[in-house]
């Protein structure tokens, strides 16, 4: 397997790969762009049963610290619901675009409590220019810096975190659930249209009124806050750990670099081995290369598409990256630590800073 570099200012675009239409035609002829109603019906039913099981367990346990197990389970179920919402946003579930949008909005806003419109806008920009400086919102400066220039600008507590961000990556993900909720609602309020606000804000409000109302009605205050904390932490870690392996540590594209569609999507993406089990665990995100090449492809078809894409990339000398889940995390942590070194004091010993001392 070939591992793409963490940063490559320029990559020579292979003229042959401009013929992405050949690959797309092959995929289309095999029927891999057809809908998978059976899979999504079964998947949706499983999520309904899982959510019902968590609610039943919550009611039966009552005032018990075993409720924290229900909190962790709820975090897992809501992440799986978010995965389905992500697929609906790419219009993979139904043939009808409006039907996909309605499903995605209900799942994201009403069930998970995150703005569907915010997610669609942000994620569409990411798909258009993955890992491109100034264009991909997923590598914009946040608590964690994904680019050295952002790391150098860090100050105060953020600078201290940035210097150690690789090692702190998973602990910081425990706050990602809260961050996602806050950023989506804030963006919807400040940037969403009147129609979007009136459509989604009531759903998000209803989600939290019902959820928090149930918590503080059934549980003592301390246990209710503990439940909420565990659920948000599990949700944040699960979401972050599923999306992070896909692009972090892969090629970074400079603003003036022009790549053909195939090269742009394949060189910046990483697949995770594991087949069907990994696909269920990560919501199909393990087939990230195929997902970026064919974003409206239903999850059951991604595995077969992988075989076709790998063969095509090998024939046209396009590096195709695939690793194990554990190896992908080690790559991400090493990359973040390497970027974080840009925030060090120039008189610090790089090895000492890299070790977090």
Structure description:
By secondary structure, the chain is mainly alpha-helical. Helix content is 64%, strand content 1%. It is built from 17 helices and two strands. Strands 1-2 form a two-stranded parallel ribbon. Helix 3 (67-89) runs antiparallel to helix 4, helix 3 packs parallel to helix 11 and helix 8 crosses helix 16. The two termini are 35 Å apart. 39% of the residues are buried. Residues 1-11 and 352-357 have low confidence and may be disordered.
List keywords for this structure.
64% helix; disordered C terminus; two-stranded parallel ribbon; 17 helices; 1% strand; 2 strands; mainly alpha; 357 residues; disordered N terminus; single chain
Order of SSEs: HHHHHHHHHHHHEHHHEHH
Count of DSSP strands = 2
Q: What is the overall pLDDT average? A: 90
Tell me the span between the first and last alpha carbons: 35 Å
Strand content: under 5%
Question: Helical stretch count?
Answer: 17
Give the low-confidence spans: 1-11, 352-357
**In order across it, which strands form the biggest sheet?**
1-2
Largest beta-sheet details: 2 strands, parallel
- Class of secondary structure makeup: mainly alpha
- The helicity comes to 55-70%
């Amino acid at each position: 397997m070939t591992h793409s570099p963490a940063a490559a200012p320029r990559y020579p675009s292979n003229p042959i790969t401009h013929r992405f239409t050949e690959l797309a035609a092959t995929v289309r002829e095999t029927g891999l762009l057809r809908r998978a109603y059976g899979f999504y019906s079964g998947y949706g039913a499983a999520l309904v049963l899982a959510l019902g099981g968590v609610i039943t367990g919550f009611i039966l346990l009552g005032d018990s610290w075993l409720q924290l197990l229900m909190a962790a389970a709820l975090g897992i179920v809501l992440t799986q619901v978010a995965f389905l919402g992500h697929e609906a946003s790419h219009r993979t579930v139904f043939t009808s675009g409006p039907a996909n949008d309605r499903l995605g909005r209900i799942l994201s806003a009403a069930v998970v409590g995150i703005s569907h419109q915010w997610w669609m806008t942000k994620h569409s920009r990411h798909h258009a220019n993955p890992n491109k400086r100034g264009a991909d919102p997923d590598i914009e400066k946040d608590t964690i810096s994904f680019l050295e220039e952002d790391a150098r600008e860090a100050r105060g507590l953020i600078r201290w975190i940035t210097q150690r961000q690789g090692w702190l990556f998973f602990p910081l993900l425990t706050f990602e659930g809260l961050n996602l909720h806050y950023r989506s609602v804030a963006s919807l309020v400040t940037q969403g249209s009147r129609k979007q606000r009136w459509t989604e804000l009531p759903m998000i409000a209803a989600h939290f009124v019902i959820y928090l109302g149930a918590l503080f009605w059934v549980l003592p205050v301390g246990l209710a806050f503990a439940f909420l904390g565990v659920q948000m932490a599990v949700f944040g870690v699960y979401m972050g750990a599923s999306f992070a392996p896909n692009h972090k540590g892969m090629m970074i594209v400079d603003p003036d670099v022009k790549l053909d569609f195939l090269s742009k999507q394949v060189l910046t993406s990483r697949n995770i081995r594991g087949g069907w089990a990994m696909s269920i665990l990560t919501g199909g995100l393990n087939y990230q290369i195929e997902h970026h090449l064919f974003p409206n492809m239903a999850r059951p078809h991604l595995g077969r598409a992988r075989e076709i894409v790998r063969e095509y990339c090998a024939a046209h000398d396009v590096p195709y990256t695939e690793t194990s889940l554990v190896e992908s995390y080690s790559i991400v942590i090493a990359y973040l630590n390497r970027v974080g070194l840009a925030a060090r004091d120039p008189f610090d010993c790089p090895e000492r800073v890299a070790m977090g001392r």
